[in-house]
Design a protein that fits this description.
This protein is mainly beta. It has two helices and twelve strands; from the N terminus they run E-E-E-E-E-E-E-E-E-E-E-E-H-H. The relative contact order is 0.18.
């Protein structure tokens, strides 16, 4: 049975109602009255990557994905999602603005502004609920330190399309052990 289309309306503390909607294995879209509309789509005709079943768009291969925010293209850098938690990082860049989701727990990722190798600003924590909905708890107070409306939309888009969090390597090894020892 194919997964059903989804639509969640999040009441963001800074930007009000934000809708995260999508067609599983195909596309995710973010919209709201105070944020630009964004979309991540998997290239038509490509197969779902079974290794990354948690990714709502069906793959972590950024070569198979296209993204836009407010009509402008978003450059995606999607980690391969292997054993190390950091391999699940997801970065989206639009113009000079760069946002990264960096996994902290199995269900949450830090939302970071800036590029790797430079000082990053921690904007908040993105979490996926067991029901599948995405929420972001923004750090600090409103103002210059908080996310801009495009950054907020991009954070919800990355979390909604590519998931949040990652298991620890040891947990992955234990759960994958039988499949590694007895393939097929």
């Amino acid at each position: 049975m194919a997964p059903e289309p989804f639509e969640d309306v999040v009441e963001d503390t800074r930007y009000g109602a934000i809708t995260v909607a999508g067609e599983p294995d195909t596309r995710v879209q973010v919209s709201g009255p105070a944020v630009p509309t964004g979309r991540i789509e998997r290239r038509p005709g490509t197969a779902r990557d079974q290794r990354h079943a948690a990714a709502p768009v069906g793959t972590r291969d950024d070569g198979l994905l296209s993204a836009t925010l407010g009509g402008a293209p978003v450059r995606l850098e999607v980690g391969p999602g292997r054993l190390l938690r950091r391999s699940y990082r997801v970065t989206g860049a639009i113009g000079d603005a760069v946002l990264t989701l960096s996994p902290r727990t199995p269900y949450s990722s830090r939302v970071l502004r800036g590029r790797r190798g430079r000082r990053r600003h921690d904007l908040g924590l993105a979490t996926r609920a067991p029901s599948g909905g995405v929420g972001i708890a923004w750090a600090g107070r409103d103002g210059a330190d908080g996310p801009t409306a495009p950054e907020a939309a991009l954070a919800y888009l990355l979390a909604g399309a590519l998931d949040t969090g990652a298991e620890l390597a040891v947990v992955q090894l234990v759960t994958a052990g039988p499949d590694l020892l007895f393939p097929g």
